[in-house]
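Q: what sequence does this backbone want?
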């Protein structure tokens, strides 16, 4: 069986097309005698002579969120909020890079690239501020030792 929207072959008993995300035809239904009309982004298929309650709407499947991307952002926020001072940003960087690799390999079947990128940016900025603070502390201690 092929997708009505993009023409790609459907895998097994797939409910949604892996290429475009359109809903696959219901089992046992045929496209003969059906009329399809476009309403915005949704298409409504109606069999000839059926009542309005027999309508079904086809919407593209929303891919699931990458859990590594969410973990990256949460760890970065916990790090900048000083709830996980050093460990949070490091975990956010590791999870963010793993999420980006996972998203690249998923080929559009996952979402969350923005979350992973935000987690990485916040984590790198937080670690940079920690390093800057440590250097400032060493400088102040070194200057105070020279004065005394």
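A:
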């Amino acid at each position: 069986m092929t997708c009505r929207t993009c023409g790609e072959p459907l895998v097994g008993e797939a409910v949604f097309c892996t290429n475009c995300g359109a809903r696959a035809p219901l089992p046992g239904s045929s496209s003969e005698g059906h009329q399809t009309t476009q309403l915005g982004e949704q298409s409504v298929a109606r069999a000839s002579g059926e009542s309005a309650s027999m309508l079904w709407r086809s919407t593209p499947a929303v891919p699931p969120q990458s859990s590594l991307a969410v973990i990256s952002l949460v760890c970065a926020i916990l790090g900048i909020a000083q709830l996980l001072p050093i460990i949070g940003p490091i975990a956010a960087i590791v999870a963010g890079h793993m999420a980006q690799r996972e998203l690249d390999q998923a080929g559009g079947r996952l979402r969350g690239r923005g979350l992973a990128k935000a987690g990485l940016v916040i984590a790198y900025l937080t670690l940079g501020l920690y390093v800057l603070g440590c250097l400032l502390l060493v400088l102040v201690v070194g200057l105070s030792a020279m004065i005394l």
